[in-house]
Design goal:
- The protein is of the alpha/beta class.
- It has one domain: Alpha-Beta Barrel (TIM Barrel).
- It is 35% helix and 14% strand.
- It is built from 9 helices and 12 strands.
- Strands 2, 3, 6, 10, 11 and 12 form a 6-stranded parallel beta sheet that branches. A two-stranded antiparallel ribbon has the order 1-9. A two-stranded antiparallel ribbon has the order 4-5.
- α7 runs parallel beside α8.
- The N terminus is likely disordered.
- It binds zinc ion (ZN).
- Zinc ion binds next to β2.
């Protein structure tokens, strides 16, 4: 039986050594990919994944024949936490049937820096097994839960996945580290303004912009946005002329 308290919110350590460690790992074990493409690409990604995404965000993409990437932690299926109710396994299947990509995360939403590497990796395998149980394909890319990265995890996962999505802002840079790929927070408030600016910049500086969010609902958590903010971003992406592709498809396109 799952309870809302089964997977408590992990709060990354704010100690100085942890903060420095997190910052340094970004520059180690890199796999840089320059952006050599004539057109901008936007990928929408959703982490965990709250049912409000299925209700309020995915249909808006589908209306434009666009598809997104869901980094699903299957252990959260049917659970209610600070992000609201999460999709059930049946919801996941339905979303997959509509053409969205369901990609890798940890099963229990543990972070790379909260447990030893073998436990982290076996939790990822458990998530993959849960995908297989409901007929989902093997995940093509992976997102680090909480954006937390250890050097060992970065090295180990780079052998498995062609792209590992992080959560640090791209800050206008067009070359991306495929082992910890920058992505723009699509959250309410200041992050929302930064998302709009990042999308507007695509008109003059072509790039691959990966956006990510969690819940999309009225009164979202601090890790989500409202349906109206989501629609505003969609309209900005339409104005930018960028192609919209799931993460794995964008990567395939860019790697020819
Ligand atoms: Zn997550």
């Amino acid at each position: 039986m799952s309870t809302p308290n089964e997977y408590p919110v992990f709060v990354p350590s704010k100690s100085l050594s942890s903060r420095i460690g997190r910052r340094l790992v970004k520059y180690r074990a890199q796999r840089m990919m320059p952006f050599n493409y004539d057109k901008s690409i936007v990928s929408f990604s959703f982490d965990d994944c709250p049912r409000s995404v299925m209700e309020n965000a995915l249909p808006v993409l589908e209306d434009r024949n666009w598809r997104g990437t869901i980094y699903a932690a299957m252990g959260l299926c049917g659970i209610t936490n600070h992000l609201g109710l999460h999709m059930s396994r049946n919801d996941m299947s339905a979303v997959h049937e509509k053409g969205h990509h369901i990609d890798g995360h940890t099963f229990s939403h543990i972070s790379a820096r909260s447990v030893p590497l073998d436990i982290f990796l076996s939790d990822i395998e458990k998530n993959k097994a849960a995908f297989a149980e409901i007929g989902l394909p093997i995940p093509r890319t992976f997102a680090y839960p909480y954006g937390e990265v250890s050097l060992e995890a970065k090295k180990a996962l780079s052998e498995i996945y062609p792209l590992l999505r992080g959560i640090h802002s791209p800050n206008g840079q067009t070359a991306l580290d495929l082992n910890q790929t920058a992505s723009q927070r699509l959250y309410s408030g200041e992050d929302f303004k930064a998302s709009l600016s990042a999308v507007d910049r695509l008109k003059t500086s072509p790039a691959w912009l990966i956006l990510f969010t969690h819940d999309v609902r009225e009164s979202p958590s601090e890790y989500g946005c409202t349906p109206s903010e989501f629609k505003t971003i969609i309209q900005a992406v339409e104005r930018s002329g960028a192609e919209v592709l799931p993460v794995a498809e964008a990567l395939a396109r860019l790697q020819g």
